[in-house]
Amino acid sequence: MKVLVATDKPFAKVAVDGIRNEIEAAGYELALLEKYGEKAKLLEAVKDADAIIIRSDVIDAEVLDAAKQLKIVVRAGAGYDNVDLEAATAHNVCVMNTPGQNSNAVAELAFGLMVMAVRNMYNGTSGSELKGKKLGIHAYGNVGRNVARIAKGFGMDIYAYDAFCPKDVIEADGVKAVASAEELYSTCNIVSLHIPATAETKNSINHALVGRMPKGGLLVNTARKEVINEAELIQLMEERADLKYMTDIMPAANEEFASKFPGRYFSTPKKMGAQTAEANINAGIAAAKQIVGFLKDGCEKFRVNKK
Ligand code: NAD
């Protein structure tokens, strides 16, 4: 059995070593395709792969067609919108993610962006503190929970909205559960986004929603760029000079945001939330273990596509 690690943006070496240990201990072979650039190289490499570990790499119908022996794809990370789930099901390929493995890394980055914004991008002027501010966590999943844990240390007043997580689960963490996204934005000084990119959430962070935020509102996005209605957020930030937007996922309209809102807008140069040695190792090794569990015992925990 051949397990291919196909990562245009490679794992740290320690993570690759850990993945190799798991795969070889199970008696399988590991193949590595890093920084491949062109899709043609990926199409060639997947031909004889039984399993693939990816990061943000795109697995579409063309890749699945080329991978005749493929049984499983594991996205080392949380978001799996880079994999065509329906095509995978049609090809009888199991798709998994590795939930929770990079959550702390992303949550820490969200606070890095928050502190930078409230300290006026470190421009030498007097800023404000997170302590006592109302923080809204938009989606209380693995990252959202880590944000809540860290926010307690900052002494923030914490609110959360999640469309699927029960209220009592949120409140058991000492976090106030609100009934709607509208209520969250109306209530909170800072909103940190942790929703996945789905048909329902795409473009949902719009003028009407963010426009509810109190004066001086700060929106922090470590989720996905697709959830933001960029044109409407630009319009809103033009209307309201008090709003700030900090993101880990560079918008398509990055240059427009940067030129129109200096001091109120910042984007990391590329998605960096999960870019820590710890998250790399955790997610990569979890992916390798899930592949071994699937190939040896048929374990489908963390499967995200239909059978
Ligand atoms: P998760 O699956 O653990 O949690 C997602 C939460 O969103 C769930 O609790 C779910 O109930 C909730 N949700 C789904 N649809 C919703 C909706 N319409 N309204 C409100 N809540 C909704 O995922 P996670 O690990 O917490 O990650 C969250 C997102 O962060 C991922 O989907 C991914 O897009 C993004 N992410 C980014 C980075 C990065 O590098 N910046 C890294 C990891 C994850």
Automatic annotation (TrEMBL):
| Record flagged with keyword S-adenosyl-L-methionine | no
Presence of keyword Oxidoreductase? yes
| Key words, A-Z | Oxidoreductase
Q: Where is the D-isomer specific 2-hydroxyacid dehydrogenase catalytic domain?
A: 26-305
> Which ranges carry the D-isomer specific 2-hydroxyacid dehydrogenase NAD-binding domain?
123-251
Q: Where are the transmembrane segments?
A: none
Origin superkingdom = Bacteria
By sequence similarity, the record places it as follows:
Belongs to the D-isomer specific 2-hydroxyacid dehydrogenase family.
What is the name of the protein in this document? 3-phosphoglycerate dehydrogenase
UniProt organism field: Mediterranea massiliensis
Taxonomy of the source species: Bacteria, Pseudomonadati, Bacteroidota, Bacteroidia, Bacteroidales
